[in-house]
Amino acid sequence: MKTYTRLMAAATCVAMTGLAAQSAQANLIEAASWNGGGTQGNYAHAVGWQFTVNTDMYVTHLGVLDLGDAGLESEHTVGIFDAAGDLVVSTTIAAGLSGDLMTGSMIYDTVDIAALAKGETYYILADNWTTDDYAWGNAAVSFSDDIDWLNFSESTGASIFDDVLHPDGQNGNLGPGFMYRPAPAPGALALLALAGCCSTRRRRQT
């Protein structure tokens, strides 16, 4: 019994370590990316986009588009809000090349991990587009398969915390964006929990 218990405990530890390593090494996914082209411009209000999530996910980074010469002209406050307008996660990205991660034409900062739920609607906004450009147009922006773009979003003022509107517009726009990891499969977590329970039960019987 003791040998079996030790084997179960070892197997559980190995499985948990393997999942942790897999999670740590999993590639981050960009919710949206710029393909080039389209139209670029400035705006006095905070801008962004409304979307629905097709799978449970964890947001790890918030970012903004950086067109033209490398480096942002201004700092940008970026935030994701739920359908009720409640803030989910936010950060402020400093001017220049101060971001934690740069991919393509996006500059990202790491944020505290925030969960977005499958089937729910959210919107993302970033402020200060009077000098830096954002982009829009069908061919200009691509979205992850885990995201359904719904509408262009804009605040009624300069801040991301002002009232927001979601007018119809061209299908696809990008100023703010985010990176995420899909949530772990429930089956994998359930197997770990079962292995742990079996190990505990065997230990009590010895």
Topology:
Blueprint: H1 2-25, E1 29-30, E2 32-34, E3 39-43, E4 47-53, E5 57-65, E6 76-82, E7 87-93, E8 101-103, E9 106-116, E10 121-126, E11 129-136, E12 141-143, E13 147-155, E14 164-165, E15 173-174, E16 176-182, H2 186-205
Antiparallel strand pairs: 1-16, 2-12, 3-11, 4-10, 4-13, 5-9, 5-16, 6-7, 6-10, 8-9, 11-15, 13-14
Looking at this protein, list some descriptive labels.
206 residues; 21% helix; alpha+beta; disordered C terminus; six-stranded antiparallel beta sheet; Jelly Rolls; globular; disordered N terminus
Descriptive notes:
With 206 residues, the protein is of the alpha+beta class. The chain folds into 2 domains: 2-26 and 187-205; 29-183, Jelly Rolls, CATH 2.60.120. It is 21% helix and 44% strand. The protein is built from 2 helices and 16 strands. The chain has helices at 2-25, 186-205, and strands spanning 29-30, 32-34, 39-43, 47-53, 57-65, 76-82, 87-93, 101-103, 106-116, 121-126, 129-136, 141-143, 147-155, 164-165, 173-174, 176-182. The strands form 4 sheets. A 6-stranded antiparallel β-sheet has the order 7-6-10-4-13-14, with no helix packed on it. Strands 1-16-5-9-8 form a 5-stranded antiparallel β-sheet, with no helix packed on it. A 3-stranded antiparallel β-sheet has the order 3-11-15, with no helix packed on it. The longest helix has 24 residues, at 2-25. The radius of gyration is 21 Å and the shape is globular. Residues 1-25, 188-195 and 198-206 have low confidence and may be disordered.
